[in-house]
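Input set for joint prediction.
Command: fold jointly, output tokens.
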Amino acid sequence: MMAEPAAPRGPAAATSREAGPLVRCEDLKVRFVSREGTVHAVNGVSFTLDPGEVLCILGESGSGKSVMLRAMMRLLPAPIARISGRVSVAGRDVMGLDGRALGDLRGAEVAMIFQEPMTSFDPVFTIGTQITETLKRHEGLSERPARQRALELLELVQIPSPARRLDSYPHEMSGGMRQRAMIALSLACKPRLLLADEPTTALDATVQIQILQLLRRLQHELRMAVLFVTHDVGVAVEISDRIAVMYAGRFVETGPVRAIIHRPQHPYTRGLLASTVHGAMRGRRLEAIPGSPPNLAALPPGCAFAPRCRHLELACTTAVPSEMRHGDDAHMVRCIRATPR
Amino acid sequence: MSLQDAIAVRPVAEALQRAQAGKSYWSRVRERLLADRITMAVMALLASIIVIVLAAPLIATHDPTVGSVFARLKSPGYQGHWLGTDEVGRDLWSRILYGGRLSLLCGVAPVAFALLAGGSLGLLAGYRGGIINSLIMRSMDVLYAFPSILLAIAICGMLGAGLVNTILALTVTFIPPIVRISETVTAQVRSFEFVEAAQASGAKPLSIIRFHILNNVLGPILVYATSLISISIILAAGLSFLGLGITPPDAEWGLMLNNLRQAIWVNPLVAALPGAMIFITSMCFNLVSDGLRSAMDVRI
Amino acid sequence: MSGEVLLEVRNVKRYFPVRGGVLQRKVATVQAVDDISFNVRCGETLGIVGESGCGKSTTARLLMQLLVADAGTITFAGRTVGASGGMDVRDLRRQVQMVFQDSYSSLNPRCTIEDTIAYGPSVHGVGWQAARLRAREMLAKVGLDPALFAARYPHELSGGQRQRVNIARALALEPKLVVLDEPVSALDKSVEAQVLNLLVDLKRDLTLTYVFISHDLNVVQYISDRVLVMYLGKVVEVGSVESIYGSPRHPYTRALLGAKPSMDPDRRSEQVTLTGDPPTPISPPSGCRFHTRCAHAEACCAAVEPPLAGDGDHYSACHMLITGSGHSAAPCIAA
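tokens >
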């Protein structure tokens, strides 16, 4: 079994090697400034994403993962949110784009799907209208071909009776179907990058697994890069090639999915995996991470996880640990105790 | 737009709230209010108006009801009349002071009574729901259908002019909107789980209303009520203007405005004074109400 | 006392009318809970699992009498609730308490933690001083230092701490049975483990009985002794946790267990266990409510509703297991 890793990256990586990474994010920082105080939501995130690769951002509430995703598309309100750092998608610097160019990027090159599809759809327009509107805006199609494409998209995401659904309003569909419609809408212009913010969290278990399998299949077929944000370890395992564990606005560990799941190095990752409940733990006491998630308005000066870490040393509290490589290139840990194997 | 609206990301909002550790909701409201310089300035102005007006017997220079045929419509400064005289020679300064007492009374009293009566009715309707809610709200709708000025005129017309009738008419006019907002807010709070939890403890409805619901709904109702005060002042002035409210020879700003109407060509400054007082006072109440609302917008 | 039946639910129904039109006439009915029956034994943890629309939250509220059943009886410690000569609702609320899902909206934002916890005992005649003392004791029991937390407000606490306060509030009345409605669903995973440990400790120290409602199969498997599976207002399977998770009989239970995300990157889920979305409880399918999504559905499934049948402690409502039901997979009548 170990000889054949199921890596959907294969064909995509071959064609893209000449282009380099699709997404390059350097030292992204986001602060929210208000009269009650400053909240440091994202504190220096750097990563690259290759075409066709799925990177999963795993973190709990308060880790800054949703904020980071929105910052990358500049979806945060300007005066309150202060963004610094560089984000480039397909070679273009997102932070420097003007309104029109940003609008061209959003929807066409980069698509985003959210947790609650009800509030992401406009309730007064049908699904068909919203998809065709996107197609007209970005691809310049006229009404008839756009509608035909919309129908194809709904079939692609396996919505039953797609022709009828084109004329349905969002509130007439169930949660799972709305999420499929949202995926169809996001794929309308064949984006190269999909940003997904906890798209399955609000769904029932039986629907969640269908949507995850659908996403995996579509991502593989369309060779789309995906940045998937979630708090559920199981979902991350199901869908990602690489996992980045986020805590208090920083990546504390990144690496291939197998490395993170089987050989976690950072105490937080280890704690997270150990405390994820499953039936085999029945009868035994759960290993909980002590303490509470950090207060983003008042972060400690050193490592943000220090107050909850059982391997605490003095050096942890003085400076934020830098990223250390563990083992091969791809596995990075932000902890002074990590040993480069 | 508040920060919480803008990002809709709960953990960031929680982090900000935790920065306000150890304080109850009302003390934070007070803090925000004290920090709001404009509202504080307006409140100071309003307070001084009220104090001056209440001190009328001490600082009035003349009897407000005594006129003089020779000293009609004189400009400010004439023979010891600080603000001049009105169309029958009465001292304007004294009339403004005494008139202010009645105008302010007609502004605050109806709202206070309506708050008591309407607030309770709305609480009852919002908490009980069902038939009782329908009964109360639909009856209020009947009253609400009338424009407030017409309703006030109709009631005053039926009962006759005078201070008590004016206050009564205005109270009835304000009960429907207060019931409406009280019911809305109560129904909203009632749907929160902590009310369910209180019921699950076995508490009786009255205890739940007193302990859990009241301190959550008081804020919005109070803000709305203070915004009604300015309307009440204007309505009372309007009623007197039409001859239905306060009767001569009592002074009241609206009445004075009516009487001095024709004098606008003779002595505009004097004629404009009562109107200016109505405007200033009701603007002050309006601004205070706005300030209260934004101070209470501490999202919890 | 352990092992005896503490709570008995018999044929309980609860429907909600859907009103529409100008005169707000009843246009449809949400059959939230339809003729369910189960027992809760003293000292056990009964887990109730199901997806949205299955009626588990409605069941929780029916147990607490926050909703009144349209039909059926609920019996606590042998006394029927609501019947004359039985137990009245106020008494029931001393014995049965509930922990809610949303720790945020289940605490009054204008009251201190101490007052929130002390309110329950004060309503039952305990004076305020004594009630506050009891509140502090409970805070200590759930792991929150009273000196630090008693005078705080809910917005100053984290999600896990608020949930502990909820638990303290429920226990302040010293109930025998605690209904937990998705108590850890809204919490972060790192905090979930803490709260689960706390619940297990409290159950042991205070000899409580739990009814644990959740959509998270892993958590239910960890904490329950017996499990009840609900679908669209009906009980489809009930049994000990080992038999439900080890050898599930009902197709829905099997689909639910198969839908859990895998924790092994090399063994990802490839097959779809169940297609489509759960139907709404407004006009549920005829016969067996699951037949529209079941891979093994036959004519008899759409016609007749299967009763709960089984052996010993493991029951399920499926025609495939009932002798003589007409289903091709049903066991034959012994000759």
